[in-house]
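Bench notes, afternoon.
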Amino acid sequence: MKNFEPAPFITGYREMTGESVNQLLANPQYATTDAITATPGGGQGNSFQLRHLHNKVDVVASPNDSVLLMEAVPGREVTVTNQGANTLGVWPTRQPPTMAGDQINGAGPNVMATIAPGKFAVLTCYTFGSWWGPVNLG
């Protein structure tokens, strides 16, 4: 698995021109994770935890091997790409202390969604605990 976490600003004090600020804002870089292996038979409690905005799953050895979304917080977005050979399971996370689960597309707490091989989903959170977007793609 390869992670990319951009560092758009060099630490320390320095003068910045308007042009350098424009370049940073016009061409943003986002954190990504590549070459993810979905957890075999993972289930919600043991699946690989996604941490970045863009995530590419390359190995899905058997149907419904899975990954776990990050917490659904308003304004957050996540892209999950399935480059594996089988259907990828995508679980919403559970929230401590009660472990009540988030949900995907209103399917109810702790219900897995799926992404077919060669497809991707862009999920957006508008309200706490709920992801929305095209999943269960065939």
